[in-house]
Prior knowledge:
By secondary structure, chain A is an alpha+beta fold. Chain A is 23% helix and 39% strand. Chain B has helices spanning 2-10, 14-36, 39-56, 67-86, 96-103, 115-118, 122-130, 134-145, 150-157, 161-181, 184-187.
Amino acid sequence: MSTPEHPTDDFFREMLSxxxxxxxxxxxxxxxxxxAKIAVKRSGRRKGYLLILSGLILVSGAVLFWIFSKxxxxxxxxxxxxxxxxxxxxxxxxxxxxxEFPHVSQTFYERTRKIQTEPFSLSGEPIEQSTIEQTSVTxxxxxxxxxxxxxxxxxxxxxxxxxxxxxxTPVNSGLTAPIVNLPPVPPGKQHSGSEDPGSKxxxxxxxxxxxxxxxxxxxxxxxxxxxxxxxxxxRRMQIKFGVSYVPELMFNTLEGEKFVNTAGIxxxxxxxxxxxxxxxxxxxxxxxxxxxxAYNDWMGSYNRLDSILFTWSDPNKNYIPTVYxxxxxxxxxxxxxxxxxxxxxxxxxQIPLILGYDFxxxxxxxxxxxxxxxxxxxxxSKELSNVYDPGNKKIISINGIPPEQVxxxxxxxxGFNTSIRLGRKFSLEVEPNIRYYFNSVFEKPSxxxxxxxxxxxxxxxxxx
Amino acid sequence: xxxxxxxxxxAREPDAVEALYDHYAPALLSVGLRYCGNLxxxxxxxxxxxxxxxxxxxxxxxxxxxxxxxWMKRIMVNTALNFLRxxxxxxxxxxxxxxxxxxxxxxxxxxxxxDQYRNLTQDQIMKIICELPLGYRTVFNLYVMEGFSHKEIxxxxxxxxxxxxxxxxxxxAMLRKKIRNMSATEKHNVYEYSGTSDx
Lengths: 464, 199
């Protein structure tokens, strides 16, 4: 801080040093009313509150995950399978004689027989007949791939989660195995397991599918397209885990614009077109804090005489003095103030709870909207600039000047999400978003506009 | 005494909060008025500043009388600067050519020989400071009243040091001009605000 040396400056300083203006009664009342609302700040209670709050968010996220990802119990499964057991039109319940279908070639008949009698596995390993007979209803699976094959073996379910969303049927005594390349059957098109086997629809189920290979292909394609559309809205739950990085440019902060980096892990629960995202990320940003340092100036030092010891010297017949001195520092009695600034790096943990809706999908690209609250909690701060050096000054007090970094803040985020499937399990999400800070990380309480930011979330996800 | 008051305010005792306000608000409002130029904005800044003060008083460590007042004043100044920044006012440094015309001829630096300086009241000084263009007023307040260097001011206002020096020079010249031109009748008019002055 400078010491201005100008006569008019001194004049103004002297004249206004004790100038006072009494605030209006209305202003005082308004302040007292608002001050009464401010809760008592107790660090212990505050920390507990933060812990409870963050715990609640994480627990609620976990509970939601658990609710939606809860596996079907055996009893529920039995009920459901009874209700939903279907005999796909392509399943052969009895051997087919070539005479009955003259248009079906002998080769195809032989192939069908082979499939019927020899259970197969997608992994190429032989499967026990009894295992096949115990196969159960597999709910529709999220990432439908029309080119995939049907699942038969329960152990293969994990391996081929992305297969066709076709319900497997408990195989009757006459049944051996379904047929490969079975198109998905939309629910509306499915036949009930309790349906009268002698009804018209199931009278000769094979005929329509094996009447002609080219016709079969056309039918399959049509069904594929239709079921692709329908399966989009009927997708079942899927969980994705991944890592994300969000560069973010904040505006309207105390220091103008500010760049914030956030990296973290996240989990996404997808339920059809809807999604719920949570996780934890570390947010890193720089900030400047101001200190109020009260001090006494150093005036100099001198050697103070503590004592003199005289020792008698016989040979010389005189006293030899020994002087004991101690160094004394002198400080001005006038208290002065200065306001140094320190640059710090702040580390926040961010816990989002983001809801999403995918409104468009084509091939490997999905577009959607995302929005929700994000909780930020200050974890630590590290001084980047040199620590304040008082030199020879005698420090009376050092106090931080608010606004300082807040321990906790809430943000609300809205974004446009683009998800690109990179494979069966992997996907990349790009999400430009806007955030609004309810109580800013960088200033409190704000006098006018709250800070806001634009960011780009990049996330690499693995789905299960 | 002050330590007791601080502890009571931290405990949110209404009487203590009111006592703190009554004791320090007049001086802080004067500071706010110097920066904003009008009482309504100054009261808004005072309101926000006091909320910051009582919210952060728990972090304040007092070791000597006077440091609390300085700490509070600094919060007030920062809040005022933030307020002006939010209102997009601080970068509105006045067009120098226009100001040159207002300033006119130079006047001597020494006020001691000038009776007009000696006879000025606090309210009159506040009035002419409040009449300064915003850029001039801000630099003048930061440099003359708060004692910041031009380097520090340039960082706070996001302008160059030369701009800060230039603004200060023009502000001084304009103040001298205004004081000199102040007529004898104006001298006895009190600056129009709803507060009262100690002098």
